[in-house]
Design brief:
alpha/beta, 7-stranded mixed beta sheet
Length: about 250
């Protein structure tokens, strides 16, 4: 992947897009942190294939801008200055770290089962100099059955994890009642939510809002589905590791 091309002009265009299209204004400190994060991601990606990208510029649009698309939706659904957020299947810290850079007062827990990816997230946390970030190297199924995490979060983020029904089974148990799960989808797959009706009834959730958006350079259109937790998820869920995806509700 090319490491050149991230010019001041490109960063400004990306920053303007975040403000004008996503409603996320970034100050100079946030921009500096995004530049630092981009360099770290490019360097580590060359060694361990953290994300699928063809150019450095694609990191800005496909990963950073895409991650920021959920910020205003979180603020709309969960209006509070200080939130506790979990990012499940976080991978390279996406979307969690970009959200944290944009809203440093929010508390962030990143859950990732692959150890080498957690190593990168730890490196990024130290390099970015951000506080209020917790990293958990474990499967979401296990974390969501832990009393220390179950029912704890105001919002749960899930980007490119799995299909909707198993995604909800992983996300909803982590939320407090009234919290929101934000599931990233392409617009083409966003319409699968009626098929998750049974899962929502069992897990105690409902579709609260949807945000549609486009990203420069992509032929796809995207959507974030926002589900509100309406009651206590039965203790049997999520089921043991691997079962939610193999046998969706």
């Amino acid at each position: 992947m090319e490491t050149t091309g991230l010019t001041a002009e490109l960063w400004q265009r990306w920053r303007d897009f975040a403000s004008e299209k996503l409603g996320v204004t970034l100050d100079e400190e946030a921009l500096r942190r995004f530049e630092t994060f981009a360099r770290a991601l490019i360097e580590w990606n060359a060694k361990m294939n953290l994300v699928s990208v063809r150019s450095a510029e694609e990191i800005l649009w496909r990963h950073f801008a895409d991650s920021l698309a959920c910020v205003r939706l979180i603020e709309k659904c969960v209006p509070s200055a200080s939130l506790s957020i979990a990012d499940i299947g976080s991978g390279a810290g996406l979307p969690g770290l970009p959200v944290k850079i944009a809203r440093p007062a929010w508390r962030l827990t990143l859950i990732e089962s692959i150890t080498k990816k957690c190593s990168f997230i730890e490196h990024a946390r130290e390099t970015l100099g951000l506080e209020g970030i917790e990293i958990i190297n474990n499967r979401v199924e296990n974390v969501a059955q832990d009393k220390g995490f179950r029912g704890r979060f105001d919002a749960v983020l899930s980007r490119a994890v799995t299909k909707l029904s198993p995604n909800l089974e992983l996300a909803l148990p982590l939320l407090r009642s009234g919290g929101h799960a934000l599931i990233f989808k392409t617009r083409a797959t966003a319409d699968e939510h009626p098929a998750a009706k049974n899962a929502l009834e069992i897990l105690k959730g409902k579709l609260a809002d949807t945000f549609y958006y486009d990203l420069p350079g992509s032929k796809e259109s995207y959507a974030i589905l926002c589900f509100e937790k309406t009651g206590d998820t039965p203790p049997a869920y999520p089921r043991r590791a691997g079962v939610p995806e193999k046998k969706p509700l």
